[in-house]
Amino acid sequence: LRNLWNVLSKAYGITIPCSIVSQPSKRNKTIYDFNVNMLRTSTECMSAVLGGSDVVFNLNYNAVYKKDNDFANRIALNQLILLKEESYFDKVENATEGSYYIETITHQLAEKALLLFKAVEKDGGFLKQLKNHTIQNKIADSARKQQEKFDAKKVVLVGSNVFQNEADKMGEALELYPFVKKNPRKTLITPIIEKRLAEELEQNRLSHE
User: What is the reported pTM?
Assistant: First the structure.
């Protein structure tokens, strides 16, 4: 992103700084074996720091199904403190600098992203493609492919689609509805709705508890 920002800023003659704010996604979070979510958020926050994020907001490990609570808030904060105080990520500006592998992959991603940017601009811009559903269709197609890999166990979420704990019961622990909520209404731009990979699997398990 920073590489692209520098290229595009120069091309458009602007001097706005690039500030990156990151937060773990709910995409791979689960309600069963929910403690594994702590490992997922830890690696995602670490990746955000290594990727050059200016600010990192952590996600509570039980945010998918439980209301905001002091214990989960404390764990989320402590995960960030551990990365800072015990991994010393605050001691260097760019911890991955000099890594041939990471810098090569970064360069390749930036080149592909620039091609996508140019294609979007050529076809009328981002807003136009949102209105004609091009962006949504591309995201939906990517999500479908990832979902198929999860269903086939090619994308693994431990405790969810592999190594399930059959004694794990979550029906009475749900304080929040953890699945996609639908409220159909007419909009100018079709919304992009977030959905977790494990939703159908979890609904099936809940129905058999």
Answer: 0.89
Cα separation, 58 vs 73, whole angstroms: 9
* Amino acid letter, residue 118: K
CATH classification at residue 82: 3.20.20.240
Residue 165's contacts (CB-CB under 8 Å, 6 or more residues apart) are: 32, 33, 159
Task: Please compute the mean of the pLDDT values over residues 69-76 and round it to a whole number.
Answer: 96
The full 3-state SS of 127-175, as one line of letters, equals HHHHHCCHHHHHHHHHHHHHHHHHHCCCCCCECCCECCCCCCCCCCCCC
3-class DSSP state of 21? strand
Domain that holds residue 84: 2-207
The helix or strand, by DSSP H or E, that contains position 182, with its residue range, turns out to be: none
Number of domains present in the structure of the chain: 1
